[in-house]
């Protein structure tokens, strides 16, 4: 039985972490023994633990020896020496708990995990596979150049979620294209079941006071600049401003309390759209919202191959996205929605209005997007590809 060490950056309920969870379930069925190392915890932690042993990298201590002792060490010029020794002891303890010498292969999920990978001292004989979900913006936000460079040097094979992602690591980081495999793992049967279940639930839009005839333009994802939450609000202003008499509502699912939410709400209020633009906090009921979208607006400035497009597609909702913002155009193409030039909000507004005004085209494009997802991303075929790769490397 092959023993795998999996490394992830946290257990939050987001795309890359959910893909890892699905992958772990499939690998367990294939007979792999796994140990998961996480940089931090999160809502998915219990689900991870139901599959295998999970180790969380310990948070740094507030003090090396104590508040007063640390001040004395600092004055004596000894604090850094004691701190480095503390870090070494911690790393040795983690290495021992992971049993690195008995690991057959390491799978690193996201380059964000390079922060912890570099501290493990993985034996040279152990092959490393890195599953990359990030493009340039995320790389700059979530990695350090030396840590990422070390991870890529040590990586035997790279899994990329889209052609755009593979091209980025080939062109910007010099990774050998012969050692890159396109790999997208989507548990389509489970997603289909979840979508159908969501559709059978009572409409959740009653809680927002939306009328039964409302046309809903949806967005979904983390609240951050890269995801284009601000662009979504501007887009809403343009679309609603062109047909103010129509009952068009914009709903973004996944904006938690915080300064960005406050800024977005201020924009919404100043634009007079409080009754038309709705920001929903992160929720496990995301599909109850998404399954009743009429159009999905992917406003991301960068998104390698987002899970939300699959969720929208399997809900038979057409997608409008930006060219040059990641891998979504590879799936949407010309028959699953529309691809508009990067940051062309006028173009996106026009395409959204085209879809809202043409129910038949909307249904046809949503149905075709769903068909393409099922045709191109069968989960069983994906895991077979990965198992074959693991066998070759080990």
Automatic annotation (TrEMBL):
Gene3D superfamilies: Glycogen Phosphorylase B (3.40.50.2000). Residues 15-182 form the Glycosyltransferase subfamily 4-like N-terminal domain. This is Glycosyltransferase. Keywords: Transferase. GO terms for molecular function: glycosyltransferase activity. InterPro entries: Glyco_trans_1, Glyco_trans_4-like_N. Residues 204-368 form the Glycosyl transferase family domain.
């Amino acid at each position: 039985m092959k023993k795998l060490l999996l490394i992830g950056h946290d257990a939050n309920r987001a795309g890359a972490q959910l893909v890892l969870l699905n992958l772990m379930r499939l690998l367990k069925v294939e007979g792999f023994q796994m140990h998961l190392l996480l940089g931090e915890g999160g809502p998915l932690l219990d689900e991870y633990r139901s599959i295998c042993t999970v180790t969380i990298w310990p948070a740094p201590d507030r003090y090396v020896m104590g508040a007063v002792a640390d001040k004395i060490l600092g004055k004596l010029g000894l604090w850094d020496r004691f701190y480095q020794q503390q870090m070494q002891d911690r790393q040795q303890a983690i290495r021992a708990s992971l049993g690195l010498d008995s690991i057959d292969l390491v799978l690193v999920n996201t380059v964000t995990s390079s922060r912890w990978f570099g501290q493990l001292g993985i034996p040279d004989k152990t092959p490393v596979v890195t599953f990359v979900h990030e493009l340039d913006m995320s790389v700059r936000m979530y990695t350090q150049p030396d840590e990422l460079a070390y991870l890529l040097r040590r990586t035997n094979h790279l899994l990329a979620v889209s052609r755009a992602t593979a091209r980025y690591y080939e062109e910007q980081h010099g990774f050998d294209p012969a050692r890159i495999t396109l790999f997208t793992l989507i548990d389509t049967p489970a997603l289909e079941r979840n979508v159908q279940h969501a559709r059978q639930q009572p409409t959740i839009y009653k809680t927002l006071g939306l009328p039964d005839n409302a046309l809903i333009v949806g967005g979904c994802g983390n609240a951050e600049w890269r995801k284009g939450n601000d662009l979504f609000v501007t887009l809403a202003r343009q679309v609603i401003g062109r047909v103010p008499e129509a009952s068009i509502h914009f709903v973004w699912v996944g904006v938690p309390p915080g300064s960005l939410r406050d800024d977005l709400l201020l924009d919404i209020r100043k634009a007079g759209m409080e009754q038309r633009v709705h920001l929903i906090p992160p929720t496990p009921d995301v599909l109850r919202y998404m399954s009743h979208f009429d159009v999905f607006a992917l406003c991301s400035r960068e998104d390698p191959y987002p899970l939300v497009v699959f969720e929208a597609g399997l809900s038979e909702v057409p997608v409008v996205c930006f060219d040059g913002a990641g891998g979504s155009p590879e799936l949407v193409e010309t028959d699953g929605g529309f691809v508009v030039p990067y940051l062309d909000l006028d173009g996106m507004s026009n395409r959204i209005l085209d879809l809202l005004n043409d129910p038949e085209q909307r249904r046809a494009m949503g149905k075709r997007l769903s068909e393409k997802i099922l045709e191109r991303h069968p989960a069983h075929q994906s895991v077979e590809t990965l198992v074959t790769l693991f066998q070759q490397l080990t």
